[in-house]
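USER: My hope is that you can spare some time for a protein that puzzles me. I am handing you a single protein, as its sequence and its fold in token form. Walk me, if you will, through where the backbone shape changes along the chain. The protein I mean follows directly.
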Amino acid sequence: MSPHPHWVCVQGDRWRHVGVDWANGAWVAVGYPVDGPPGVAVYDTIEQCWNANGDTADRIIVDIPIGLCSETTATPWEVDDDGEHSRRCDDVARSIISPRWSSVFTAPCREAAELAADDDAAYSDVNETNREVTGKGLSQQAANIAPAIAAVDELLLEGDGDPDVLVEGHPEVCFRAFADDPLQHNKRTAPGVAIRLKALEASTNYQAGTWRDLATALADDERTVDLDDLLDALALALTARADDDAFHRLPSPDPPNDADGLPMQMVYRRAEPFEHD
């Protein structure tokens, strides 16, 4: 891969509020400066994204699990009747987004994510490692994104990443927080895009046409960024712009930390926090 990020349409000042989605092996980021319209950039690595924005951003929200189970301890995890472990934030998120619940996959344990980062690792080995630690297997989708999870984990635990700035958000939770009702359509469909844009316009300081402008800015980029990935990054960036009293976490009020001190949470923007068990 190229050692340099693929910059596209970065406007004016350095970004203050950033949303990042892992897409097709790269990281698409939408960022808002202090003033003016947002920009979009595509990075090869999460480290490049952090190095470009970490010293100026108040919040960088990434659609990647942060806070993982490990062999060290399973205490922060929910344990069901079968002895299987799961993150509380994942379970709560599924209940909140209801018909879109399947979009929240079970996060891998740290050992499985690190193994998956090895290009030579077989899915069967990653799956078995996760089963040994958590009591449950790992979906192919979760295994595919596990290298990105390991990269964020490494940035926060061994690099310069700040867990108070770089936080986890799930786009479907964010869209549900923007909307009055649960979302019925997949974001890859025309009705799904329409209802999500309508929710953004009604609930945030989103300007109509911004998504189109950002998509146009990516037209000359050598990578292929799917429209739903761009839409997710935009939703996360708008979530990052929330006032403190509208910036909430799942589970609330006090998300647990994992064995290495990283919060096991999902953030979202809403006038009032979701009620949950």
